[in-house]
Amino acid sequence: MQLPLDPDSRCSHCAMDKHCFHEAAVPEAFKAFISAHQTVDSGQDLFVRDQSDIQVAVVQSGAFKLTQTTPTGDRQIINVALPGDYVGLSRLFQHASPVAATAVSRSRICLLDHERLNDNPRQAIQLLRRELESSRWHQSLGMYEAPARMGQWFLKLADNNERRGLSRQRLTLPLNRTELANYLVMALETVSRTLKKLQTQGLIAVNGKTIDILDETGVRALAYPDPQLIS
Question: How many domains, in total, are found in the chain?
């Protein structure tokens, strides 16, 4: 359900205020583009593949998985939008997108007026950079072994936590293990083995979907090994 803005819904009252639109030359101008708030239940689509109408939003809380259908008919997670990330920006430049966005937990978003964004294409491209960076990161996963992929994902979550004023050491995984295997392009058994290996090495502690980073320096060294060691 969409809710119109009210005085208590302004950006200054939001924990993500300093994080949203920071790529833009004039962040305050983009905050004026927010047209409504919406709560999206877990499993609900914000938009589906090839949908022609445009939905552009900033994630305020929760998370979304962005998926594409492979030639074999499987759904591949190609990006995960965390609080402060944008969803649907690339749809401004495509008549219909092959990507679907689905909430992985009960989420709250700020909807943007896409017509006003269309009138400011240069600024919209500035905001699109973060989405493109995440896509490039996902495309590069094949260069790394499973522990490095997992370590990089944990560091991405830690960075997002830090921007939100939360602990870098305690992470809440937005994806279940099946989704995580899909996203990191590894077998489900490999996810379990990798988590166990990182625990045995004293780098992390695992309690369900909660990950405690015990040695961030060690996780970083694992995540970004010497290029000569990458097979």
Answer: 2
Q: Give 129's contacts (C-beta < 8 A, 6+ positions apart).
A: 23
Domain boundary among 130, 157, 185: 130
Q: Tell me which residue range forms the domain holding 67.
A: 2-130
179 and 111 both lie in a single domain: no
Q: Interior CA angle at 159 toward 89 and 86, to 5°? A: 10
For the whole model, what pTM was predicted? 0.85
Tens of pLDDT, residues 21-48: 655 555 566 677 788 889 999 999 988 7
